[in-house]
């Protein structure tokens, strides 16, 4: 049994222009002790899906799912109280902006102690000891001194370490990291990623890493799920994904990276991610896809695991679309 | 040449897709947020009616507001015993029709609101822009003066000013404008300080914009949101303060049918003729409430922090 | 050999900070001694982490702030305190945040025409013609001229910002993290446009970025900064192939590469950036440097190296040390 199972999760927001579906039919599973990465550009719904799981969305959002289970227990069937016990304790989350995730009015030690008191009910002295131990675990030098420090006295990297320490306070089984290093400098990013992977191994946690950075994915993740415009477009093991992406979007995204460029001109993806008012029919990527045809503009089908579950009518194999021989032949004739 | 072509192709493709209505236009979005607030819409309706009444006063009013009807002093409203239908809301101590006076009084209230807000807005925004843009000692000086003005209870300060300038509607309006103006100064200054380090302002500087241009063309339009909300709330404040000054005999002078003055004139009959004080009071209450509700709606619509989506 | 459109000599910018009425005012050396030349049609990348002074350098180069020390020559004219419209037109800037860099209350047309209106006496009709031409040049269309910025996506806004910066036909364009806020697919579009515009107008770019993979793609020359100091300077090819300053090597090794099969060979950097209020003596990198020795704390190291590739380091890395 997987640690986390999500089946057909959809999230809609009420906006001034009507309902907006930010996440559409996303499924994912995550096993104990694995690193799953969810990668996508802005508007891909990668954060929203996880916030929905944690119950952290504003009231204008409506969440639907076929199944939303953690350790086999359906989260939706739980009362708010039981749910709170799971969230924050068994599942923890850290965010992109470490500076604004900590309350500026209280010391680091107080905030760490609060979360320990709430979840574990420890006494004052034990709390202090545990807090020091946690800070030591996340590699903060001189933890005794740092307890009495206010968040504004910490750098971004240090704040993120404190956030990680708080998330780890109850030894969660699952840690969700939402762009944990995007706001940090490159050298600090390397330190934090290393720390996360290290802790994940040591504690045998599951880690879901949400990011937009293909470099971070390549260096940290084991399994990767690619999202586009609120839909999951494919899922593969990291090495296979970079070697042989099955969805044209993934392929185009990888090709557009400057470091993979062979020419001064980058193979950019034309157009923009569809927004609330310009959702195309059929495949959402079809207006930007170089392989799209009339079928794609009408409907799109989900492929089996042999194609990484790609949401594409003509999944790529070694860079060439399959199941489209006739169309290709015609292309050759015309050109 | 090949480069050129590929770019325009790519762009054309992208733009073809953006043709679909991208977002609501500014006005319809404004209306969406404004109309979410039911009270605001109600306020707007009442306010619109008030404006109509003020404009059409000579047509609507059954009598001249200053004509004194003999033998008709302190007549009660029409629906009570002893009332007459030609004086719908009764008459005052010298036999003037209260209904007609209230209708004409709406002209004064609106006039006071508009003039006071205009003076306070113009002065306050100008001073605030300068303070926020220049900073330094001038800013400190201006803000300390504003703090001093704000330290006085507003009505007391207005009273003092009217006492100096002499009673009368125009002087009362000037006094109220001075009292209300610091709010505009502070708001504008805060908005300017918030915007001045934004990239578009710096890029205007790099493009060679002069300080005057920056203040009036670049910064001002982007600082107006909160100022407009404040203007709506000041409008009701101005009406209220003017009524208070009128009541104290320092504002509009009799026989002007100004609501506050009407209240003052009827004060001594408060037990004998309840209608003479109740209806002007109600008129002030409804007007101020309507404008305040409208101001809340404006805040909802113009303050991006409260917006969803 | 084309002429230098930008010459910076020992540029510095200090800020006084007071932390209270009785505390002694401290000096932050946000930028301390940057020198370089830039030719027309070439791209100089300024690379460093937050607090390294790269944005301060951008503000000094575009005359938003005066330098505290040093000399700046743009297109043959030396920058002095006096306003010089010709100088003003020679250098323009594009900012990182596409959502903050366009005036939300102006239409695109007004945004594009503003620089012409402020600096030249070009007639309204001609202004509009040039505005439309430039809009098309960056891949947008004529009907966008009457729209407001909020109707555009981040990538489109960045194109508009670039178009505006080019309206005065500058010689130098300072690009302050121009693609950092954009998604990868959009980033590629904007980088392509920048590339085309450079070829067409012979623009010189000062490209400020923290993203080494973008820099590697676009830069001809590279300037690595750390805590307000230039620590390495050379042709992009040389610096990427053989970084000689330890900081550069660490930075390169810390940058994630989108290739899961690549062997990770990271130089672990301990500690964080020191406070710019209280920089370490000598080489600013010495507390984090694995090669640091006693002499590193004595004074800021002089440039070492040869022929257009310099590093400010007492113990520069040998060639074979860095290819690992």
TrEMBL record, chain A:
<dbReference type="InterPro" id="IPR013563">
    <property type="entry name" value="Oligopep_ABC_C"/>
</dbReference>
<dbReference type="InterPro" id="IPR003439">
    <property type="entry name" value="ABC_transporter-like_ATP-bd"/>
</dbReference>
<dbReference type="InterPro" id="IPR027417">
    <property type="entry name" value="P-loop_NTPase"/>
</dbReference>
<keyword id="KW-1003">Cell membrane</keyword>
<keyword id="KW-0067">ATP-binding</keyword>
<dbReference type="InterPro" id="IPR003593">
    <property type="entry name" value="AAA+_ATPase"/>
</dbReference>
<dbReference type="Pfam" id="PF08352">
    <property type="entry name" value="oligo_HPY"/>
</dbReference>
<keyword id="KW-0813">Transport</keyword>
<dbReference type="GO" id="GO:0015833">
    <property type="term" value="P:peptide transport"/>
</dbReference>
<dbReference type="GO" id="GO:0005524">
    <property type="term" value="F:ATP binding"/>
</dbReference>
<dbReference type="InterPro" id="IPR050388">
    <property type="entry name" value="ABC_Ni/Peptide_Import"/>
</dbReference>
<dbReference type="GO" id="GO:0055085">
    <property type="term" value="P:transmembrane transport"/>
</dbReference>
<feature type="domain" description="ABC transporter">
    <location>
        <begin position="4"/>
        <end position="254"/>
    </location>
</feature>
<dbReference type="GO" id="GO:0016887">
    <property type="term" value="F:ATP hydrolysis activity"/>
</dbReference>
<protein>
    <submittedName>
        <fullName>ABC transporter ATP-binding protein</fullName>
    </submittedName>
</protein>
Automatic annotation (TrEMBL), chain B:
<feature type="transmembrane region" description="Helical">
    <location>
        <begin position="40"/>
        <end position="61"/>
    </location>
</feature>
<dbReference type="Pfam" id="PF00528">
    <property type="entry name" value="BPD_transp_1"/>
</dbReference>
<dbReference type="GO" id="GO:0005886">
    <property type="term" value="C:plasma membrane"/>
</dbReference>
<feature type="domain" description="ABC transmembrane type-1">
    <location>
        <begin position="106"/>
        <end position="295"/>
    </location>
</feature>
<feature type="transmembrane region" description="Helical">
    <location>
        <begin position="273"/>
        <end position="295"/>
    </location>
</feature>
<keyword id="KW-0653">Protein transport</keyword>
<dbReference type="InterPro" id="IPR050366">
    <property type="entry name" value="BP-dependent_transpt_permease"/>
</dbReference>
<dbReference type="GO" id="GO:0015031">
    <property type="term" value="P:protein transport"/>
</dbReference>
<keyword id="KW-0571">Peptide transport</keyword>
<protein>
    <submittedName>
        <fullName>ABC transporter permease subunit</fullName>
    </submittedName>
</protein>
<keyword id="KW-0472">Membrane</keyword>
<feature type="transmembrane region" description="Helical">
    <location>
        <begin position="154"/>
        <end position="180"/>
    </location>
</feature>
<keyword id="KW-0812">Transmembrane</keyword>
<keyword id="KW-1003">Cell membrane</keyword>
<comment type="similarity">
    <text>Belongs to the binding-protein-dependent transport system permease family.</text>
</comment>
From TrEMBL, chain C:
<dbReference type="GO" id="GO:0015833">
    <property type="term" value="P:peptide transport"/>
</dbReference>
<dbReference type="Pfam" id="PF00005">
    <property type="entry name" value="ABC_tran"/>
</dbReference>
<dbReference type="Pfam" id="PF08352">
    <property type="entry name" value="oligo_HPY"/>
</dbReference>
<dbReference type="InterPro" id="IPR017871">
    <property type="entry name" value="ABC_transporter-like_CS"/>
</dbReference>
<comment type="similarity">
    <text>Belongs to the ABC transporter superfamily.</text>
</comment>
<dbReference type="InterPro" id="IPR013563">
    <property type="entry name" value="Oligopep_ABC_C"/>
</dbReference>
<dbReference type="GO" id="GO:0005886">
    <property type="term" value="C:plasma membrane"/>
</dbReference>
<dbReference type="InterPro" id="IPR003439">
    <property type="entry name" value="ABC_transporter-like_ATP-bd"/>
</dbReference>
<dbReference type="GO" id="GO:0016887">
    <property type="term" value="F:ATP hydrolysis activity"/>
</dbReference>
<keyword id="KW-0813">Transport</keyword>
<dbReference type="InterPro" id="IPR050319">
    <property type="entry name" value="ABC_transp_ATP-bind"/>
</dbReference>
<keyword id="KW-0067">ATP-binding</keyword>
<keyword id="KW-0547">Nucleotide-binding</keyword>
<dbReference type="InterPro" id="IPR003593">
    <property type="entry name" value="AAA+_ATPase"/>
</dbReference>
<protein>
    <submittedName>
        <fullName>Dipeptide ABC transporter ATP-binding protein</fullName>
    </submittedName>
</protein>
């Amino acid at each position: 049994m997987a640690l986390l199972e999500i089946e057909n999760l959809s999230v809609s927001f009420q906006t001034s222009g009507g309902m907006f579906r930010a996440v559409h039919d996303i499924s994912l599973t995550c096993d104990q002790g694995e690193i799953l990465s969810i990668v996508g550009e802005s508007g891909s719904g990668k954060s929203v899906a996880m916030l929905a799981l944690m119950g952290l969305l504003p009231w204008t959002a409506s969440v639907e799912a076929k199944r939303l289970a953690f350790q086999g227990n359906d989260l939706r069937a739980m009362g708010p109280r039981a749910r709170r016990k799971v969230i924050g304790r068994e599942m923890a989350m850290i965010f992109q902006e470490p500076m604004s995730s900590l309350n500026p009015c209280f010391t680091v030690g107080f905030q760490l102690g609060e979360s320990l008191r709430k979840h574990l009910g420890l006494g004052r002295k034990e709390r202090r000891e545990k807090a020091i131990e946690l800070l030591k675990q996340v590699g903060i030098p001189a933890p005794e001194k740092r307890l009495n420090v206010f968040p504004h006295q910490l750098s971004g990297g240090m704040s993120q370490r404190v956030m990680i320490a708080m998330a780890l306070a109850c030894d969660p089984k699952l840690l969700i990291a939402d762009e944990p290093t995007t706001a940090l400098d490159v050298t600090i990013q390397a330190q934090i990623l290393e720390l996360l992977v290290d802790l994940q191994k040591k504690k045998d946690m599951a880690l879901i890493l949400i990011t937009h950075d293909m470099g971070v994915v390549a260096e940290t993740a084991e399994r990767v799920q690619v999202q586009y415009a609120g839909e999951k477009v494919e899922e593969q093991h990291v090495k296979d994904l970079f070697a042989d992406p099955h969805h044209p979007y993934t392929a185009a995204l990888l090709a557009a990276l400057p470091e993979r460029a062979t020419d001064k001109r980058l193979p950019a993806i034309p157009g923009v991610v569809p927004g609330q008012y310009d959702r195309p029919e059929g495949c959402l990527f079809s207006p930007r896809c170089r392989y799209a045809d009339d079928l794609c503009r009408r409907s799109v089908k989900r492929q089996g695991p042999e194609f990484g579950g790609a949401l594409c009518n003509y999944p790529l194999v070694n860079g060439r679309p399959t199941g489209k021989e006739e169309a290709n032949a015609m292309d050759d004739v015309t050109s | 040449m090949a480069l050129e072509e590929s770019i325009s192709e790519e762009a054309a493709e992208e733009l073809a897709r953006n043709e679909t209505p991208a977002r609501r236009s500014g006005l319809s979005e404004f209306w969406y947020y404004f109309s979410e607030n039911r009270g605001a819409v109600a306020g707007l309706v009442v306010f619109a009616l008030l404006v109509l009444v003020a404009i059409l006063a000579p047509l609507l009013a059954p009598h001249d507001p200053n004509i004194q009807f003999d033998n008709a002093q302190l007549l009660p409203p029409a629906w009570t015993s002893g009332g007459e239908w030609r004086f719908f809301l009764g008459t005052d101590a010298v036999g003037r029709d209260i209904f007609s006076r209230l209708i004409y009084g709406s002209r004064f209230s609106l006039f006071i609101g508009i003039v006071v807000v205009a003076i306070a807005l113009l002065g306050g925004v100008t001073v605030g822009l300068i303070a926020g843009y220049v900073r330094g000692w001038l800013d400190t000086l201006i803000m300390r003066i504003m703090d001093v003005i704000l330290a006085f209870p507003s009505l007391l300060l207005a009273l003092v000013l009217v006492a100096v300038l002499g009673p009368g509607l125009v002087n009362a309006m000037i006094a109220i404008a001075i009292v209300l103006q610091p709010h505009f100064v502070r708001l504008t200054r805060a908005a300017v300080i918030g915007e001045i380090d934004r990239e578009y302002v710096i890029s205007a500087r790099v493009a060679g914009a002069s300080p005057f241009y920056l203040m009036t063309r670049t910064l001002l339009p982007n600082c107006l949101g909160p100022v407009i909300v404040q203007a709506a709330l000041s409008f009701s404040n101005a009406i209220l303060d003017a009524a208070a000054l009128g009541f104290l005999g320092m504002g509009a002078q009799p026989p002007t049918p100004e609501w506050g003055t009407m209240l003052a004139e009827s004060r001594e009959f408060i037990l004998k003729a309840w209608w003479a004080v109740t209806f002007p009071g109600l008129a002030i209450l409804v007007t101020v409430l309507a404008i305040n509700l409208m101001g809340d709606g404006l805040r909802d619509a113009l303050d991006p922090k409260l917006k969803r989506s | 050999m084309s002429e230098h459109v930008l010459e910076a000599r020992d540029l510095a910018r200090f800020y006084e900070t007071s932390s209270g009425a009785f505390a002694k005012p401290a000096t932050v050396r946000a930028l301390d001694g940057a020198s370089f030349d830039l030719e027309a049609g070439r791209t100089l990348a300024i690379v460093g982490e937050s607090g390294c002074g790269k944005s301060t350098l951008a503000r000094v180069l575009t005359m938003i702030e005066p330098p505290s020390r040093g000399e700046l020559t743009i297109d043959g004219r030396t920058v002095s305190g006096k306003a010089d419209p010709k100088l003003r037109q020679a250098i323009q800037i594009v900012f990182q945040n596409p959502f903050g860099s366009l005036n939300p209350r102006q239409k695109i047309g007004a945004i594009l025409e503003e620089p012409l209106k402020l600096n030249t006496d070009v007639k309204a009709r001609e202004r509009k013609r040039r505005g439309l031409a430039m809009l098309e040049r960056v891949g947008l269309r004529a009907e966008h001229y009457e729209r407001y910025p909020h109707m555009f996506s981040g990538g489109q806004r960045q194109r508009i910002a670039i178009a505006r910066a080019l309206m005065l036909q500058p010689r130098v364009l300072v690009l302050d993290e121009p693609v950092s806020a954009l998604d990868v697919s959009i980033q590629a579009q904007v980088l392509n446009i920048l590339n085309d515009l450079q070829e067409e107008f012979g623009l010189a770019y000062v490209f400020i970025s923290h993203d080494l993979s973008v820099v590697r793609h676009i830069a001809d020359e590279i300037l690595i900064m750390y805590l307000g100091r230039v620590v390495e300077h050379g042709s992009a090819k040389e610096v990427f192939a053989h970084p000689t300053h330890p900081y550069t090597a660490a930075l390169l090794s810390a940058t994630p590469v989108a290739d899961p099969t690549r062997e990770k060979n990271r130089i672990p950097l301990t500690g964080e950036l020191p406070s710019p209020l209280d920089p370490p003596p000598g080489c600013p990198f010495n507390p984090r440097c694995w090669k640091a020795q006693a002499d590193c704390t004595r004074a800021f190291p002089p440039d070492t190296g040869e022929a257009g590739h310099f590093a400010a380091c007492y113990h520069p890395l040998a060639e074979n040390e860095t290819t690992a």
